[in-house]
């Protein structure tokens, strides 16, 4: 392989076994025997040039080999093949290697940076390098890198193909969805147009009747006025006519009042339906697919009992077995935690970048700061057996299981633990709960939803903690979250299934099929902005966070 660079001039007329001539003099056409050899410049020198070489500041530090210590011309020619320029001293060639610093050096480098180092002469150590272990290891590493890069290239191509397929699929779904919307809107436009024309015709008919009635009353009034005016010259006749008019006037006034009453025609105004956007955005159980999973080793996380989404793609969740609360940065797949020294269970977000966590055994609620690094702020007594927790309008809603309190109950308390209301206040509902482990709040409508794995029921309460309605489930419910105005997502405790509840109709649909697995708490959250569903799963004793996407509703209007 040829190497670009400065080549040493060699007199082709001379054999490489002949005595060397001075190379600087050879450039001037002179043939002067050499007595020295500069290892740095790789040149043979005559006495005059050697003296000059020692006296010049640029070459004074170069080591010269004298007379019998000089290499033969053949060896010097091999050494002269070192023509790679030094990066730090472009005018010099690389001829040495410093093992201590693992750096290639020229003569200037040795003087300036490596005076105390033991240097290898490349021309000597390179002779067996081709067959050496270092070179073979380098080749093997490069081969491994090439294989890895080849796999990366194939993976990139596969992802590119998948991306294109997903794009086309999503565009087809979008077009189909917009077509459905257009058809719905066209149908709705026709219906509303018919109603508008019908209202117009009804109003026009009423107005025509009122106009006729008004003209008739105007004629009567004018006739009476004319009769009075014609009798003004005869007082007797005027008196008679006026009395007759007085008799007729009350009836005429009643007819005018009836006319005015009928003129209060209802007014209609076309307005936008505030719920249209939400109806288009509702979760579609037929279009949910897994897009990624975050796996956790068993020593890292084993039992997620509750979780909630925070701004900036952060997920806050309870790790009961490890006695802490963790904050995951979803984009970086990174976690931080705060230790609680007791088994936590329920979790909810509070104003001011804070969260509240229930500690069932000591019966406390711990407040946590969620901005930056997680940290404990304060705690207060709530009562043993506290499980689920939610925040609404400056108050906490906390559930208590039957194991620790008889009967199980849901209470409304302030942020200091003072109980304001209890479900026990409704005497006819004392036994409605058994194991109300999880709950969520619909702040917009001031409604609470309790997930009870003892009764296999989700119960809707109003803010007074009175039962509004119940939703029976086929499996034990676990984690629960509220979506929009009338939707709930509920995890199954015994499987990895997730059910969707429409609270306005009572319809319950399994949107994610669950396989039988280890019995345990599971949690679920849904982001309305991205239409991503997050839920904890247990498969083969491994805990993971599944992230699912609603393909259709991610394009909701």
From TrEMBL:
<dbReference type="InterPro" id="IPR015943">
    <property type="entry name" value="WD40/YVTN_repeat-like_dom_sf"/>
</dbReference>
<dbReference type="InterPro" id="IPR011044">
    <property type="entry name" value="Quino_amine_DH_bsu"/>
</dbReference>
<feature type="coiled-coil region">
    <location>
        <begin position="135"/>
        <end position="162"/>
    </location>
</feature>
<protein>
    <recommendedName>
        <fullName>B box-type domain-containing protein</fullName>
    </recommendedName>
</protein>
<dbReference type="InterPro" id="IPR047153">
    <property type="entry name" value="TRIM45/56/19-like"/>
</dbReference>
<feature type="coiled-coil region">
    <location>
        <begin position="200"/>
        <end position="262"/>
    </location>
</feature>
<keyword id="KW-0175">Coiled coil</keyword>
